[in-house]
From TrEMBL:
It comes from the Bacteria. Residues 173-291 form the Tc1-like transposase DDE domain. This is Putative transposase. It comes from Bradyrhizobium diazoefficiens.
Length: 291
């Protein structure tokens, strides 16, 4: 049985909205039918005639007449459906995170998805993997970090970053560092002629050791130019020799040199007095990544 038809009274604003909805080529069919039902009902059409013209059952026409009469345009939207209750909730997510803070079971070096699911007991392993992926938690890759305990971290970091962002006028900003214990290997390189007449280019798998070497390098921040040299040892004397070659490369220029806190970089006041155009800037302790 069709309920008694409700009278529909449209305001000018609502009529414009519904007419625009009917004209739009991107309107969903369900929204188009609802808009036509309300417009025809506002023109005084009967429920059955509207149903025949729109192509729906009379009860559908009656439904949307009542919904608009009671709630206006908002009544033409679908009501939220409860749907199926989720099996796993935020409480489950907290249980997974709490378990990750604990050591893995005896005999295992780290947690895995199946181990987590087994320890939780009532959580599927596939949900465990989805949760880990959504939170970008990688159980295999090793993460590490270094925290600086320098009490003057802020001031030192601001000094170094300031040189990068706004270097002094007509001055050269250099990042200086060294890499020690580099294997000095000699390999046979060139062409290898094969019996079939072809030739291969490359290097031999065998090599000859020549001990280790230390690389000193200075990067000019503005241009990317690099000044480098090798030395057999990494002492203060080798460091100052390298700085002499750096100052010779930039005669009569003010140099701001950024260094880490290696012991050979400190206590060089005599050399700095002899080179007043050079100023050392030290990164905070345990923050050599600023260099």
């Amino acid at each position: 049985m069709i309920p008694e038809a409700r009278e529909v009274h449209l305001s000018r604003k609502d009529r414009k909205v519904l007419e625009a909805c009917c004209r739009s080529p991107v309107t969903l069919q369900r929204d188009l039918k609802r808009a036509r039902i309300v417009l025809l009902a506002a023109d005084g059409r009967s429920t059955r005639s509207i149903a025949k013209e729109v192509g729906v059952q009379p009860r559908i026409v009656s439904l949307w007449r009542h919904r608009y009469a009671d709630h206006g345009l908002e009544g033409l939207q679908d009501k939220p459906r409860p749907g199926k209750q989720p099996i796993y909730t935020k409480t489950t997510d907290k249980r997974i995170l709490k378990l990750l803070d604990k050591p893995p079971p005896q005999g295992f070096a780290r947690w895995t998805g199946p181990l987590l699911a087994e320890a939780l007991g009532d959580v599927d392993v596939q949900y465990v993997w989805r949760f880990l992926r959504s939170h970008k938690i990688d159980l295999v890759a090793r993460k590490s970090w270094c925290e600086s305990n320098d009490p003057n971290f802020t001031a030192k970091a601001a000094d170094v970053v300031g040189l990068y962002v706004a270097p002094p006028a007509k001055a050269i900003v250099l990042c200086v560092d060294e890499k020690s214990s580099i294997q000095a290997l000699e390999r046979a390189q060139g062409y290898l002629k094969l019996p079939n007449g072809r030739a291969l280019t490359g290097q031999s798998h065998d090599y000859k050791r020549h001990g280790t070497t230390t690389l000193f390098a200075a990067l000019e921040v503005a241009t990317g130019k690099i000044i480098a040299t090798h030395s057999k040892r990494r002492r203060r004397v080798e460091f100052l020799d390298f700085m002499n070659s750096v100052t010779a490369a930039f005669p009569n220029r003010k140099l701001h040199v950024i260094l880490d806190n290696l012991n050979t970089h400190k206590k060089n006041e005599d050399w700095l007095k002899a080179h007043p155009n050079v100023q050392f800037h030290f990164t905070p302790t345990s923050a050599s990544w600023l260099n």
